[in-house]
Write a structure and sequence with these properties.
The structure holds two protein chains of two kinds. Chain A has one domain: TIM Barrel (Alpha-Beta Barrel). In chain A, about 30% of the residues lie in helices and about 20% in strands. Chain A has helices at about 80-90, 105-115, 140-150, 165-175, 185-190, 200-205, 210-230, 240-250, 260-265, 305-315, 330-335, 350-360, 365-380; strands at about 10-15, 20-30, 35-40, 50, 55-60, 60-65, 90-95, 125-130, 150-155, 180, 195, 210, 230-235, 255-260, 320-325, 400-410, 425-435, 440-445. In chain A, strands 1, 2, 3, 4, 5, 16, 17 and 18 form an eight-stranded mixed β-sheet that branches. The radius of gyration of chain A is 21 Å and the shape is globular. The two termini of chain A are about 30 Å apart. In chain A, about 60% of the residues are buried. By secondary structure, chain B is an alpha/beta fold. Chain B folds into two domains: about 15-135 and about 290-310, Rossmann fold; about 135-290, Rossmann fold (3-Layer(aba) Sandwich), CATH 3.40.50. In chain B, about 35% of the residues lie in helices and about 15% in strands. Chain B has helices spanning about 15-30, 60-70, 90-100, 115-120, 135-150, 170-180, 210-215, 240-245, 250, 275-280, 285-305, and strands at about 45-50, 75-80, 105-110, 125-130, 160, 185-190, 205, 220, 260. In chain B, the strands form two sheets. In chain B, strands 7-6-5-8-9 form a five-stranded parallel β-sheet. A four-stranded parallel β-sheet of chain B has the order 2-1-3-4. The longest helix of chain B is centred in the last third of the chain and has 20 residues, at about 285-305. Classes of the chains: A alpha/beta, B alpha/beta. The interface of A and B includes residues 205, 289 and 291 of A.
């Protein structure tokens, strides 16, 4: 059906691949969309040869958590615009959440998403809802959805408040070996909160969302998974208490995995009133007066600096398995409103990799650990054995990174339709220069 | 001059010099209320728009009188009469007002940060007349003006603030203004109305019981209990609240013998304060209202006069 993919020889790059535990100078030969050969020195005839002296070659990042907004909210993002943003950020596979309109709770919607994704530069993996309409009342037809191409189930954005329904969802999904991605939140404690319950909420009169609201639900979810002996994945961990619950559960042998977002790893509650409090912001972007920047509003909220430190430790020691963006595009006018009225969510696909590199630069993890959190573990969580590593035979999904290249985050240059990032103006070091999916170059800087 | 700002959004970032400047200026405007002709030409030709997205009679009236006594043209715009109900965004509303070239916009809104959002958008000066539970700077400043009539406003003074701290912009603006001047602030509220995270503010003492807060207080500031909050599981009953936290004559005995009693209004008599105390000799509640006009004249004058310099 498609013409033959030209073969590609990548020379002299630094291959960093957690799946093969390799970090060093290797050549890669990509044939027919797959990795054909990996060796210190390859002299083969290829249709195209790239000399990657000074550059890093990494398995394509896999994002477990994005919102592509299509169908229903195409003014915020489309599958195509989201996928373009993904490959510009080094992501070759993106798993999209079900809170579209209509909700992805039936095979027709899943098929529609996959159909739209055929022209997209990244691989799009639909996550189906857990409950019909994400109403928390009736299970979706999981078998039908898996057949249509759903890779996981999630009512993300909402919890499943009914513990019996959540139990049955965990049990039923295990039949297909598909994970549940749980957005953990106790609705009564969350109430009408807008930012983390802490110093900033107390001092600025904004209604707080206690970390407890998340932790109570994480505890409930872990207990169910432990009792049922099934795997479960916890979305966007944000607090120290949540980290400790996961740590203890893993120590007991519970099959729980967890993700954290770059924004929770870099920003704390102070960003709500002062995005300028951290160093990397360019001088010219600093606000003159106090402002309540709605690009700091997301759920779960930015928490305390102690929580950020705990998340960073958990990322390094593997308690947090994956970095996921929770890329949540909104149109500019939707965010240009009173803080309390603004929708939750920030974009992340085009800044995540450089922020992860910054964690390396800050000594929080090694390059191999970064690849494990962004490629290897996400593939394992989704049960995808054809990607996440660049071993021979795997899909030729990869990114080429210039680790020295310095850039300033300018939302106007995003491929995403949306601009709602809290990192605007940040000086970052390290950028994706090429992204390759199934052996084809889909992005070049 | 000690006050050079485009906007007055809160007391949080005001310096002691700025606060003193505002109070001194207000002091000089007090006597205008006693003249037979209560008008000075200071802001003649200036337009002040009172943009109230939340119902308010006394604050809006106070600003309106203040503007008129300075000879400014004051226009009132209330949310029900505006296009907000038609789904227009706040910034669109503000752009429309800006297009009519006002000099000062006084804004009240139920959401935090609204005045800040508007101030960042337009060239006119913005006065925050209350944004959610965040700030109500002119109320705090008029409270300070009132306190200064009776007490030495500075280190050594103790002010007790009792009531629904969590939802009170009056409390927050007072905390920032008073602590900036070195005043000790004691806070007391039912645990359900006391947000976690205020303990760390320098000069603030959080008390569990009203008796603790009242001990040695020179000023007792009672906050309004919003009765509609009852259905939000915040306190069991008005009766229970009044019994434990209400200010009555016996409880007032615990404060300094010459302590003054304040309330930002409107009062729930018999709930947070008994009529006996509210109408008693130590209450300065109506002085607060009078001082409100003078203080707001000072604010409008200092913001509106800048264009001439």
């Amino acid at each position: 059906m498609s013409e033959k993919t030209p073969s590609l020889l990548l020379k002299n790059g630094r291959l960093i691949d957690a799946g093969q535990n390799l970090d060093g100078r290797f050549d890669l030969f990509l044939v027919n969309g797959k990795v054909q050969e990996v060796a210190v020195e390859l002299d083969v005839v290829a249709d195209q040869v790239l000399d990657l002296e000074g550059l890093w070659v990494l398995p394509g990042a896999i994002d477990l958590h994005v919102h592509l907004r299509e169908p229903g909210y195409e003014y915020k993002e489309t599958i195509l615009s989201g996928a373009r943003a993904a490959v510009a950020g080094g992501f070759t596979s993106i798993a999209c959440m079900a809170n579209t309109d209509p909700v992805n709770d039936n095979a027709a919607v899943t098929r529609f998403i996959l159909e739209q994704a055929r022209s997209a530069p990244a691989k799009v993996l639909p996550i189906a809802a857990i409950s019909k309409g994400m109403q928390g009342e009736v299970l979706v037809e999981m078998g039908d959805l898996v057949e249509a191409g759903a890779v996981a189930f999630s009512d993300d954005g909402k919890t499943v408040p009914n513990s019996k329904l959540l139990r049955h969802a965990l049990e039923y999904a295990s039949l297909f070996a598909k994970p549940l991605f749980c957005h953990c939140q106790d609705n009564a404690l969350f109430a009408d909160g807008v930012i983390h319950e802490g110093e900033i909420s107390a001092r600025h009169g904004l209604t707080g969302i206690p970390a407890l609201a998340e932790e109570i639900d994480i505890a409930r979810t872990i207990m169910l998974a432990e009792y049922l002996e099934v795997p479960v994945h916890i979305c966007h961990l944000s607090s120290r208490g949540g980290v400790e619950l996961i740590r203890a559960a893993k120590a007991r042998g519970v099959r729980v995995t967890a993700e954290a977002t770059p924004h929770h790893l870099f920003l704390d509650e102070r960003a709500v009133v002062d995005l300028a409090y951290r160093e990397p912001l360019a001088e010219e972007s600093k606000p003159a007066t106090l402002c309540y920047n709605t690009d700091t509003k997301m759920s779960p909220p930015l928490r305390s600096s102690e929580d950020v430190a705990a998340l960073r430790r958990a990322l390094a020691d593997g308690i947090i398995d994956a970095i996921a963006t929770d890329h949540a595009p909104h149109e500019a006018t939707e965010k240009a409103v009173e803080y309390e009225l603004a929708p939750f969510g920030v974009v992340g696909l085009e800044t995540a990799l450089a922020l992860a590199l910054r964690l390396i630069q800050e000594g929080e993890m090694t390059p191999l650990q970064m690849v494990a959190r962004m490629s290897l573990a996400p593939a394992a969580i989704l049960g995808l054995n054809d990607r996440g590593s660049l071993a021979v035979g795997m899909a030729a999904d990869l990114m080429i990174v210039d680790p020295q290249r310095e850039w300033v985050v300018d939302p106007r240059k995003f491929y995403s339709k949306a601009r709602n990032t809290p990192f605007a103006g940040w000086h970052l070091k390290g950028q994706v220069v090429k992204t390759i999916v199934d052996g084809r170059i889909v992005f070049s800087l | 001059m000690g006050f050079r700002r485009k906007d007055l959004l809160g007391t949080r970032d005001l310096t002691a010099v700025e606060i003193r400047t505002l109070l001194e200026s207000a002091e000089s405007f007090k006597e205008i209320a006693e003249r037979p002709l209560k008008k000075v030409p200071a802001l003649r030709g200036k337009t002040v728009v009172n943009l109230f997205f939340e119902p308010s009679t006394r604050t809006r009236t106070s600003f309106e009188i203040a503007a008129k006594r300075l000879s400014a043209d004051a226009v009132n715009m209330s949310a029900s009469a505006s296009s907000v109900v038609k789904g227009e965004s706040l910034l669109d509303t503000v752009d429309n007002i800006q297009a009519m070239a006002p000099d000062i916009i006084v804004v009240r809104h139920r959401f935090v940060g609204t005045a800040h959002l508007i101030a960042g958008r337009i060239g006119a000066s913005v006065v925050n007349a209350g944004d959610g539970a965040n700030e109500h700077p002119t109320q705090a400043l008029l409270d300070l003006l009132t306190i200064a009539e009776h007490k030495k406003l500075g280190p050594g003074l103790t002010v007790a603030i009792i009531g629904d701290i969590a939802h009170s912009r009056v409390a927050r603006s007072n905390i920032w203004a008073l602590t900036t001047l070195g005043v000790t602030v004691k806070l007391c509220a039912p645990p359900t109305m006391l947000p976690r995270g205020l303990e760390g503010i320098v000069g603030v003492e959080v008390c569990r019981r009203p008796e603790e807060a009242l001990a040695n207080a020179d000023v007792v500031m009672m906050l309004r209990i919003q009765l509609e909050r009852q259905d939000r599981l915040v306190f069991p009953s008005v009766r229970d609240y009044a019994r434990i936290f209400g200010l009555n004559r016996q409880r007032l005995e615990l404060a300094c013998p010459d302590a003054i009693v304040m309330h930002p209004g409107p009062m729930n008599r018999g709930v947070e304060i008994t009529s006996e105390v509210a109408d008693g000799k130590r209450a300065v509640i109506l002085n607060q209202v009078s001082n409100g006009v003078a203080l707001r004249m000072a604010v409008l004058f200092l913001l509106g006069g800048q264009g001439h310099e």
